[in-house]
Amino acid sequence: MKLSTIIPLASLAIVGTVLAIGALHDTPLGMEFTVPPRNAEIEVVDLGLGDLTLRGILVDGEGQPVPEAGVTTEQAGRPVWAWSRRDGTFELGDLRPGPLLLRVVALGFEASQFEVALTESTPAGETRTFQLDRPIGAPPEPPVLSLADLDGTVRFGPLATPELGYELLFQPVTAPTDPAGGFPRRAPVAPDGSFHVDLLHAGRYRAILLSPDDRGATEPDLLQTRHGEPRTFTHEAGGDTPRLDLVATMGAVTGRVYASSRDEGLAVDLAAESASEPDPVRGALVKIERVSADEDASEGETVLDRVTFRATRSAQDGRFELHDLLPGSYRLTLVAGRERRTVDMTVPAGEVATIDIDLSR
Protein backbone atom coordinates (compact mmCIF):
# COMPACT_ATOMS: atom_id res chain seq x y z
CA MET A 1 0.00 0.00 0.00
CA LYS A 2 1.34 3.39 -0.95
CA LEU A 3 2.19 6.00 1.67
CA SER A 4 -0.19 8.52 0.06
CA THR A 5 -3.08 6.16 0.78
CA ILE A 6 -2.10 5.23 4.35
CA ILE A 7 -1.90 8.83 5.64
CA PRO A 8 -5.57 9.81 4.80
CA LEU A 9 -6.87 6.58 6.31
CA ALA A 10 -4.91 7.14 9.50
CA SER A 11 -6.23 10.70 9.73
CA LEU A 12 -9.81 9.51 9.43
CA ALA A 13 -9.24 6.90 12.15
CA ILE A 14 -7.85 9.53 14.54
CA VAL A 15 -10.78 11.91 13.92
CA GLY A 16 -13.32 9.12 14.46
CA THR A 17 -11.68 8.16 17.76
CA VAL A 18 -11.76 11.74 19.03
CA LEU A 19 -15.46 12.11 18.14
CA ALA A 20 -16.33 8.83 19.86
CA ILE A 21 -14.53 9.87 23.07
CA GLY A 22 -16.31 13.25 23.01
CA ALA A 23 -19.68 11.62 22.54
CA LEU A 24 -19.12 9.42 25.58
CA HIS A 25 -18.07 12.24 27.87
CA ASP A 26 -20.02 15.29 26.61
CA THR A 27 -23.66 15.77 27.67
CA PRO A 28 -25.83 16.63 24.62
CA LEU A 29 -28.13 19.65 24.86
CA GLY A 30 -26.82 20.51 28.32
CA MET A 31 -28.71 17.63 30.02
CA GLU A 32 -27.14 15.61 32.81
CA PHE A 33 -27.50 11.83 32.85
CA THR A 34 -26.74 9.49 35.69
CA VAL A 35 -26.26 5.79 35.41
CA PRO A 36 -28.32 3.92 38.03
CA PRO A 37 -26.39 1.39 40.06
CA ARG A 38 -26.85 -2.28 39.42
CA ASN A 39 -29.86 -3.94 41.08
CA ALA A 40 -31.39 -0.49 41.84
CA GLU A 41 -35.14 -0.48 42.55
CA ILE A 42 -37.27 1.39 40.00
CA GLU A 43 -39.88 3.67 41.56
CA VAL A 44 -43.41 2.41 41.00
CA VAL A 45 -45.86 4.92 39.47
CA ASP A 46 -49.35 4.67 40.93
CA LEU A 47 -51.86 4.93 38.05
CA GLY A 48 -54.82 4.70 40.38
CA LEU A 49 -55.90 1.35 38.95
CA GLY A 50 -57.81 -1.19 40.96
CA ASP A 51 -58.88 -4.76 40.36
CA LEU A 52 -62.64 -4.35 40.77
CA THR A 53 -65.21 -4.18 37.96
CA LEU A 54 -68.62 -2.57 38.15
CA ARG A 55 -71.18 -4.33 35.96
CA GLY A 56 -74.60 -2.85 35.37
CA ILE A 57 -77.64 -2.69 33.13
CA LEU A 58 -79.63 0.39 32.18
CA VAL A 59 -83.41 0.07 31.87
CA ASP A 60 -86.27 2.52 31.36
CA GLY A 61 -89.42 2.89 33.45
CA GLU A 62 -90.94 -0.18 31.81
CA GLY A 63 -87.87 -2.35 32.35
CA GLN A 64 -86.70 -2.21 28.73
CA PRO A 65 -82.92 -1.95 28.10
CA VAL A 66 -81.44 1.45 27.19
CA PRO A 67 -78.66 1.00 24.60
CA GLU A 68 -75.91 3.42 23.52
CA ALA A 69 -75.96 5.42 26.75
CA GLY A 70 -72.81 7.05 28.10
CA VAL A 71 -71.80 5.96 31.62
CA THR A 72 -68.98 7.87 33.32
CA THR A 73 -67.41 8.14 36.74
CA GLU A 74 -64.19 9.43 38.27
CA GLN A 75 -61.87 7.85 40.84
CA ALA A 76 -58.69 9.43 42.20
CA GLY A 77 -58.83 12.02 39.45
CA ARG A 78 -58.99 9.34 36.74
CA PRO A 79 -62.03 9.31 34.43
CA VAL A 80 -63.62 5.96 33.67
CA TRP A 81 -66.31 5.57 31.04
CA ALA A 82 -68.20 3.06 28.90
CA TRP A 83 -71.14 2.74 26.49
CA SER A 84 -74.12 0.52 27.21
CA ARG A 85 -74.61 -2.36 24.80
CA ARG A 86 -77.75 -3.25 22.86
CA ASP A 87 -79.04 -5.19 25.89
CA GLY A 88 -78.34 -2.18 28.17
CA THR A 89 -75.35 -3.75 29.94
CA PHE A 90 -72.03 -2.00 30.59
CA GLU A 91 -68.78 -2.55 32.51
CA LEU A 92 -66.40 -0.15 34.26
CA GLY A 93 -63.09 -1.86 35.09
CA ASP A 94 -59.88 -1.14 37.03
CA LEU A 95 -61.78 0.33 39.98
CA ARG A 96 -60.79 0.55 43.63
CA PRO A 97 -63.04 -0.03 46.62
CA GLY A 98 -65.00 3.04 47.69
CA PRO A 99 -67.98 5.21 46.78
CA LEU A 100 -68.65 6.13 43.14
CA LEU A 101 -70.91 8.65 41.45
CA LEU A 102 -72.21 7.37 38.12
CA ARG A 103 -73.39 9.87 35.49
CA VAL A 104 -75.60 8.52 32.72
CA VAL A 105 -76.52 10.35 29.53
CA ALA A 106 -78.98 8.59 27.24
CA LEU A 107 -80.99 9.66 24.22
CA GLY A 108 -84.55 10.50 25.20
CA PHE A 109 -83.83 10.81 28.93
CA GLU A 110 -82.69 13.56 31.25
CA ALA A 111 -79.16 13.20 32.61
CA SER A 112 -79.14 10.98 35.71
CA GLN A 113 -76.75 10.30 38.61
CA PHE A 114 -76.42 7.20 40.79
CA GLU A 115 -74.39 6.65 43.98
CA VAL A 116 -72.64 3.28 44.09
CA ALA A 117 -70.40 1.65 46.72
CA LEU A 118 -67.74 -0.93 45.79
CA THR A 119 -66.14 -3.20 48.40
CA GLU A 120 -63.62 -6.01 48.34
CA SER A 121 -66.49 -8.37 49.10
CA THR A 122 -68.52 -7.31 46.05
CA PRO A 123 -69.24 -10.49 44.04
CA ALA A 124 -67.28 -10.55 40.77
CA GLY A 125 -70.29 -11.47 38.62
CA GLU A 126 -72.81 -9.13 40.25
CA THR A 127 -74.84 -6.99 37.79
CA ARG A 128 -76.65 -3.96 39.18
CA THR A 129 -79.75 -2.42 37.64
CA PHE A 130 -80.03 1.33 37.07
CA GLN A 131 -83.45 2.66 36.08
CA LEU A 132 -83.77 5.85 34.01
CA ASP A 133 -87.16 7.17 35.11
CA ARG A 134 -87.03 10.73 33.72
CA PRO A 135 -87.79 10.53 29.99
CA ILE A 136 -87.83 13.72 27.95
CA GLY A 137 -91.37 14.28 26.75
CA ALA A 138 -92.52 15.72 23.47
CA PRO A 139 -92.19 19.51 23.19
CA PRO A 140 -95.38 21.49 23.79
CA GLU A 141 -97.49 22.38 20.84
CA PRO A 142 -96.73 25.88 19.56
CA PRO A 143 -99.58 28.36 19.75
CA VAL A 144 -101.71 28.70 16.67
CA LEU A 145 -100.78 31.84 14.76
CA SER A 146 -103.68 34.19 14.16
CA LEU A 147 -102.64 36.14 11.07
CA ALA A 148 -104.45 38.88 9.18
CA ASP A 149 -103.51 41.74 6.88
CA LEU A 150 -103.41 45.32 8.15
CA ASP A 151 -104.03 48.44 6.08
CA GLY A 152 -104.01 52.09 6.98
CA THR A 153 -102.99 55.65 6.21
CA VAL A 154 -100.55 58.13 7.72
CA ARG A 155 -101.48 61.81 7.71
CA PHE A 156 -98.22 63.74 7.60
CA GLY A 157 -97.42 67.07 9.16
CA PRO A 158 -96.13 70.22 7.47
CA LEU A 159 -93.04 70.17 5.24
CA ALA A 160 -93.04 66.35 5.24
CA THR A 161 -91.56 64.62 2.20
CA PRO A 162 -93.42 61.27 1.87
CA GLU A 163 -91.80 60.61 -1.50
CA LEU A 164 -88.47 60.06 0.30
CA GLY A 165 -89.85 56.98 2.05
CA TYR A 166 -91.08 56.92 5.65
CA GLU A 167 -91.26 53.62 7.55
CA LEU A 168 -93.67 52.17 10.10
CA LEU A 169 -92.52 49.83 12.87
CA PHE A 170 -95.16 47.75 14.65
CA GLN A 171 -93.71 46.78 18.03
CA PRO A 172 -95.61 44.23 20.21
CA VAL A 173 -96.59 45.60 23.61
CA THR A 174 -96.23 42.18 25.29
CA ALA A 175 -92.91 40.67 26.38
CA PRO A 176 -90.70 39.21 23.60
CA THR A 177 -90.87 35.79 25.31
CA ASP A 178 -94.62 35.59 24.66
CA PRO A 179 -95.07 34.32 21.06
CA ALA A 180 -98.83 34.83 21.34
CA GLY A 181 -98.25 38.58 21.57
CA GLY A 182 -96.99 38.97 18.02
CA PHE A 183 -93.71 39.78 16.36
CA PRO A 184 -92.12 43.10 15.29
CA ARG A 185 -92.90 44.06 11.70
CA ARG A 186 -91.86 46.93 9.43
CA ALA A 187 -93.75 48.40 6.51
CA PRO A 188 -92.89 51.18 4.04
CA VAL A 189 -95.23 54.15 3.73
CA ALA A 190 -96.24 55.04 0.19
CA PRO A 191 -95.98 58.64 -1.03
CA ASP A 192 -99.77 59.01 -0.63
CA GLY A 193 -99.47 57.95 3.05
CA SER A 194 -100.97 54.47 2.65
CA PHE A 195 -99.36 51.30 4.00
CA HIS A 196 -100.04 47.56 3.96
CA VAL A 197 -98.76 44.74 6.22
CA ASP A 198 -99.17 41.13 5.12
CA LEU A 199 -100.23 38.54 7.72
CA LEU A 200 -99.66 40.52 10.90
CA HIS A 201 -100.05 38.38 14.02
CA ALA A 202 -103.01 39.26 16.22
CA GLY A 203 -102.07 41.19 19.35
CA ARG A 204 -101.55 44.62 20.82
CA TYR A 205 -98.96 46.81 19.10
CA ARG A 206 -97.32 50.19 19.27
CA ALA A 207 -97.08 51.99 15.94
CA ILE A 208 -93.80 53.91 15.43
CA LEU A 209 -93.32 56.25 12.47
CA LEU A 210 -89.71 56.74 11.37
CA SER A 211 -88.40 59.44 9.07
CA PRO A 212 -86.46 58.58 5.88
CA ASP A 213 -83.23 59.29 7.78
CA ASP A 214 -84.16 56.89 10.61
CA ARG A 215 -85.40 53.83 8.70
CA GLY A 216 -84.31 50.60 10.37
CA ALA A 217 -84.09 52.27 13.79
CA THR A 218 -86.65 52.41 16.62
CA GLU A 219 -86.73 56.15 17.32
CA PRO A 220 -87.57 59.00 17.20
CA ASP A 221 -91.25 58.12 16.91
CA LEU A 222 -93.00 60.79 14.83
CA LEU A 223 -96.40 59.61 16.14
CA GLN A 224 -95.46 60.35 19.74
CA THR A 225 -97.10 63.34 21.40
CA ARG A 226 -95.26 66.06 23.30
CA HIS A 227 -96.05 64.30 26.58
CA GLY A 228 -94.48 61.06 25.35
CA GLU A 229 -97.74 59.17 24.76
CA PRO A 230 -97.28 56.37 22.17
CA ARG A 231 -99.84 55.29 19.60
CA THR A 232 -101.08 51.78 20.45
CA PHE A 233 -103.77 49.62 18.89
CA THR A 234 -105.13 46.06 18.95
CA HIS A 235 -104.90 43.95 15.81
CA GLU A 236 -107.75 41.44 15.67
CA ALA A 237 -107.61 38.03 14.04
CA GLY A 238 -109.68 37.19 11.00
CA GLY A 239 -109.34 40.59 9.36
CA ASP A 240 -111.67 42.33 11.83
CA THR A 241 -109.26 45.22 12.46
CA PRO A 242 -110.58 48.43 10.89
CA ARG A 243 -108.34 50.51 8.66
CA LEU A 244 -105.72 52.19 10.83
CA ASP A 245 -105.61 55.99 10.69
CA LEU A 246 -102.36 57.46 12.04
CA VAL A 247 -101.63 61.15 12.48
CA ALA A 248 -98.01 62.30 12.47
CA THR A 249 -97.27 64.85 15.19
CA MET A 250 -93.95 66.11 13.91
CA GLY A 251 -93.33 69.76 13.33
CA ALA A 252 -90.71 71.69 11.40
CA VAL A 253 -88.48 74.74 11.66
CA THR A 254 -87.77 77.20 8.87
CA GLY A 255 -85.63 80.28 9.05
CA ARG A 256 -83.22 82.66 7.42
CA VAL A 257 -79.64 83.58 8.24
CA TYR A 258 -78.51 87.08 7.28
CA ALA A 259 -76.19 89.91 8.26
CA SER A 260 -77.48 93.47 8.41
CA SER A 261 -73.89 94.79 8.30
CA ARG A 262 -71.03 93.44 6.15
CA ASP A 263 -68.58 91.03 7.84
CA GLU A 264 -65.66 89.67 5.84
CA GLY A 265 -65.79 86.41 7.80
CA LEU A 266 -69.27 85.55 6.48
CA ALA A 267 -70.23 84.05 3.11
CA VAL A 268 -72.77 86.67 2.05
CA ASP A 269 -74.57 86.80 -1.28
CA LEU A 270 -72.79 89.52 -3.32
CA ALA A 271 -75.71 89.72 -5.73
CA ALA A 272 -77.92 91.06 -2.92
CA GLU A 273 -75.28 93.46 -1.59
CA SER A 274 -76.67 96.50 -3.39
CA ALA A 275 -80.24 95.79 -2.31
CA SER A 276 -81.76 97.42 0.70
CA GLU A 277 -82.44 94.06 2.39
CA PRO A 278 -79.82 92.45 4.69
CA ASP A 279 -77.22 90.19 3.12
CA PRO A 280 -78.20 86.50 3.25
CA VAL A 281 -75.54 84.12 4.65
CA ARG A 282 -75.12 80.90 2.74
CA GLY A 283 -73.51 77.67 3.97
CA ALA A 284 -74.16 78.32 7.66
CA LEU A 285 -74.36 75.12 9.72
CA VAL A 286 -77.72 74.84 11.54
CA LYS A 287 -78.16 72.11 14.15
CA ILE A 288 -81.17 71.55 16.41
CA GLU A 289 -81.24 69.28 19.49
CA ARG A 290 -84.18 68.37 21.65
CA VAL A 291 -84.12 69.33 25.33
CA SER A 292 -84.41 66.14 27.42
CA ALA A 293 -86.52 65.87 30.55
CA ASP A 294 -83.73 64.58 32.79
CA GLU A 295 -84.86 64.26 36.40
CA ASP A 296 -81.24 64.07 37.59
CA ALA A 297 -80.33 67.44 36.06
CA SER A 298 -79.66 70.27 38.50
CA GLU A 299 -81.81 73.37 38.58
CA GLY A 300 -81.17 75.60 35.59
CA GLU A 301 -79.21 72.90 33.73
CA THR A 302 -80.23 72.11 30.15
CA VAL A 303 -79.73 68.49 29.05
CA LEU A 304 -79.76 67.92 25.28
CA ASP A 305 -80.62 64.72 23.43
CA ARG A 306 -77.42 64.23 21.44
CA VAL A 307 -78.82 61.25 19.51
CA THR A 308 -82.02 62.51 17.86
CA PHE A 309 -80.77 65.77 16.32
CA ARG A 310 -81.24 67.32 12.89
CA ALA A 311 -78.75 69.42 10.94
CA THR A 312 -78.60 71.29 7.64
CA ARG A 313 -76.91 74.25 5.93
CA SER A 314 -78.38 77.53 4.77
CA ALA A 315 -79.02 77.87 1.05
CA GLN A 316 -77.86 80.60 -1.34
CA ASP A 317 -80.62 82.90 -0.10
CA GLY A 318 -79.75 82.16 3.55
CA ARG A 319 -82.87 80.08 4.17
CA PHE A 320 -82.92 76.68 5.86
CA GLU A 321 -85.47 73.97 6.78
CA LEU A 322 -85.41 71.29 9.47
CA HIS A 323 -88.02 68.55 9.05
CA ASP A 324 -89.48 65.68 11.12
CA LEU A 325 -89.11 67.19 14.59
CA LEU A 326 -91.03 65.84 17.57
CA PRO A 327 -93.06 68.49 19.40
CA GLY A 328 -91.21 69.95 22.36
CA SER A 329 -88.42 72.27 23.46
CA TYR A 330 -85.24 72.56 21.40
CA ARG A 331 -81.93 74.35 21.28
CA LEU A 332 -80.87 75.59 17.85
CA THR A 333 -77.16 76.17 17.23
CA LEU A 334 -75.90 78.12 14.21
CA VAL A 335 -72.26 78.39 13.11
CA ALA A 336 -71.12 80.65 10.26
CA GLY A 337 -67.47 81.53 9.96
CA ARG A 338 -66.33 82.95 13.29
CA GLU A 339 -69.90 83.57 14.40
CA ARG A 340 -71.87 81.21 16.64
CA ARG A 341 -75.42 81.63 17.92
CA THR A 342 -77.69 79.50 20.15
CA VAL A 343 -81.44 79.95 20.42
CA ASP A 344 -83.90 78.08 22.65
CA MET A 345 -87.25 77.54 20.97
CA THR A 346 -90.41 75.40 20.96
CA VAL A 347 -91.67 73.27 18.07
CA PRO A 348 -95.47 72.85 18.20
CA ALA A 349 -97.09 69.58 17.14
CA GLY A 350 -98.01 69.60 13.48
CA GLU A 351 -96.89 73.20 12.94
CA VAL A 352 -93.95 75.15 11.55
CA ALA A 353 -91.81 77.34 13.79
CA THR A 354 -90.07 80.24 12.03
CA ILE A 355 -86.89 81.98 13.16
CA ASP A 356 -84.60 84.56 11.55
CA ILE A 357 -81.05 85.05 12.81
CA ASP A 358 -79.07 88.25 12.27
CA LEU A 359 -75.38 87.43 12.70
CA SER A 360 -74.38 91.08 12.87
CA ARG A 361 -76.07 91.54 16.25
TrEMBL record:
Gene3D superfamilies: Carboxypeptidase-like, regulatory domain. It comes from the Bacteria. This is Carboxypeptidase regulatory-like domain-containing protein. Pfam families: CarboxypepD_reg. GO terms for molecular function: carbohydrate binding.
